[in-house]
Every structure is written in C-alpha cells, then in structure tokens.
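Notebook entry, structure prediction.
Reason for the run: the old model in the group folder had no record of what sequence produced it. Starting over properly, with the input documented here first.
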Amino acid sequence: MSSTLQPLPIRLAQTLGLTSSLLLAGQTLTLSTFLIPRLLDSPTPLMLRQWNAMYQSGKKQGPPFALVSALSYWYLAYHSSSSSKTTAYAVAGALAIGIVPYTLLFIKGTNVKLLEKVGETKSLGKLEEVTEVGLGNQSAHALVDWWGMLNLGRGMLVVASGVLGTWTALN
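New structure, fully documented this time:
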C-alpha cells in the first residue's frame, strides 16, 4: 500500500463504488434472508401485495445503485496505474451491473408469474384457495420462495463486486 495520498476524484470514486455496491448487496441479501421468509408466513393475498410492493420499490432502486457502482469502478479501472488493478476494478464493475442481465435471464420468468398472481388477486378478488391454484403446479407461495432463492444469486454478484472493489482499493 502506497504512503502517498490519492487524488480526491479517485477517493470519491472508491467511496461511491464501495458504498453503493455494498449497500445494494446488503439490501438484496436482506430481501432473501429476512423479508421473504416473513412473507411466506402471510396469507396469499397479503403476501402477494407485500411482494409486489417490494418488487416495485426494488426495480426502481436496484439498477441505479448498480449503475453508480459500476461506473465508479470503471472510472477507477480507467485511471488505475497497474494492469492488475485495472482488471480487478473492471471486473468489480461488471459484477455490480451484472444484476441486470442476471435478473433478465434467471428471475424475469418468476417475476412474470408472480405479477400474474398479483393481478389475479387485484382484479378478480380471488380467495386464497383459488389464488394457489393455476400456473401449473406452482403456487404463489412456491413462486415467492423460489424468487427468494434466485435473488440470493443476484445478491452474491454485488457482494463479490463490493469485496473485490474493497480488496483492490486497499492493495
């Protein structure tokens, strides 16, 4: 570790990248480990309303945090003095923004099914027993549970981004 101070823009980019990726990691993992198990204890219509509220909030908050983090890491990669730091910061940026393609590839199908379930309970006022029927053998509870598992993968991407960014900044 060098004893010279880094210029202010570098320190700001490090702070922004690390903070945004680690905050997003904490938020994402909290959904799967704390919120989803509580939702699964709820009756289906309530669970679906709560999941939808979480989903609507998350789709607005997550991508901007990932973008800020990725841009900060890529700025650091561009201004890095060593090829190993350049590579590490570039990978940290890719991991941070990787939640977007991960969501589209792995979670979108489950989101669509859950949003259909939300629509069933909103527009038709179906009872819990009826809401649990349909979409093959996938009940609303099973879909929310599966969503929580898939979301763990997304969380691990931003954890890896934050850890790699921190390691690179400290070395």
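Summary: The mean pLDDT is 90.
The old model has been moved to the deprecated folder.
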